[in-house]
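Retry 2 of 3 after timeout on previous attempt. Resubmitting structure tokens to design endpoint.
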């Protein structure tokens, strides 16, 4: 099957005509070609529906839209019978969750990832006494894991020739330190050059590195993601100087195994990260996911077009929740026209959260399916 698909460009046959397994192969190969500027058949587009949406929109209406947009939702089948959305442990309303790192999460909305309010290292006296770095063979830092089951899954995937997009948990380094110490404490630690902070960072890096090496050694990763929010509405959450001193060395170490194995390195960050962009690329990032209007489309074009693959995080603050369907379509068209190249270097992603009018949701899905074939 793989040989036949490689001979037929996806643009020649509608993706919806392939089986679900065939689509996965096409989409994976196309994503890699987009990342590597190897002339993808179409612009990779991802539409993610946050689980909180199932309590805010009529479910049938969302399912109708998913069925109408088979390219964005390949293989989707409308649930039958009684169906309830599933929420991850740190996104359950009024159910505090303490993760294996000892951080306690709270949320007031099912499906929306909570905020850490319990910081196990708010007092350094706990470090190495009542608090210890967990075992990476038993947890990924957020949830407990079954390592034997994970190894069996990798073995099965290798036998089937399947791949997956590996990822560290969101907030693997800087945000993890913030969750352990508290944001304000962490910034004071950096300014005061607290020696215990260096030791904590070293332990955290080794923990994360064990997870990365396991993904690389699986032989099944088509890419590895290092998601971590570093930006605020204006500017980063820490100065470039503090990033280079405390965070970037870990980034380099964590990305090196993937880079040495030739695996594309993906990095996501919300917020304004313009001041950190050069440092992120220098650390090894090959695909950078950043917000469009927060960072500015024209700045993104100037900094990345034709140089580094951008996975553009489509606006969730202004146009999609408050604009008209025509303005939504215009935004997607503008971004594709300004950023896309026939050689590749552009992917786009949208995360739907409650509050966006359904007519805008449809306009967005329509535009993404339309403009992904901009060069076809």
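Retry 2 succeeded. Sequence:
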């Amino acid at each position: 099957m793989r040989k036949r698909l490689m001979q037929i460009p996806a643009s020649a046959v509608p993706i919806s005509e392939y089986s679900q397994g065939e689509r996965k192969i096409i989409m994976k190969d196309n994503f890699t070609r987009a990342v590597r500027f190897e002339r993808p058949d179409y612009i990779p587009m991802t539409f993610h529906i946050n689980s909180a949406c199932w309590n805010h929109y009529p479910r049938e209406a969302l399912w109708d839209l998913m069925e109408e947009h088979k390219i964005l939702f390949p293989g989707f089948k409308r649930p039958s019978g009684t169906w309830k959305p599933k929420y991850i442990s740190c996104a359950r309303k009024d159910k505090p969750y303490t993760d294996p790192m000892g951080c306690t999460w709270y949320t007031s909305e099912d499906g929306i990832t909570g905020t850490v309010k319990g910081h196990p290292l708010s007092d350094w006296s706990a470090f190495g006494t009542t608090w210890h770095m967990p075992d990476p063979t038993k947890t990924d830092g957020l949830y407990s894991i079954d390592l034997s089951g994970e190894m069996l899954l990798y073995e099965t995937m290798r036998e089937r020739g399947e791949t997956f997009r590996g990822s560290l948990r969101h907030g693997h380094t800087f945000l993890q330190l913030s969750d352990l110490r508290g944001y304000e404490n962490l910034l004071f630690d950096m300014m005061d050059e607290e020696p215990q902070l260096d030791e904590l960072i070293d332990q955290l890096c080794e923990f994360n590195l064990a997870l990365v090496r396991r993904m690389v050694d699986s032989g099944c990763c088509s890419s590895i993601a290092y998601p971590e929010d570093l930006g605020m509405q204006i500017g980063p959450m820490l100065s470039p100087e503090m990033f280079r001193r405390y965070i970037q060395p870990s980034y380099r170490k964590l990305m090196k195994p993937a880079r040495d194995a030739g695996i594309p390195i993906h990095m996501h960050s919300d917020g304004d990260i313009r001041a950190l962009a050069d440092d992120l690329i220098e650390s090894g990032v090959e695909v950078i996911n950043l917000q469009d209007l927060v960072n500015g489309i024209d700045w993104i074009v100037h900094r990345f077009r034709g140089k580094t693959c951008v996975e553009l995080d489509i606006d969730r603050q202004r146009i999609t929740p408050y604009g008209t369907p025509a303005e939504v379509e215009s935004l997607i068209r503008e971004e594709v026209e300004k950023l896309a190249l026939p050689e590749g270097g552009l992917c786009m992603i949208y995360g739907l959260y409650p509050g966006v009018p359904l007519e805008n949701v449809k306009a967005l899905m329509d535009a993404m399916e339309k403009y992904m074939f901009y060069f076809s």
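Attempt log closed. Strands lie at 45-49, 97-98, 104-106, 115-118, 164-167, 221-225, 265-269, 287-291, 309-313, 346-352.
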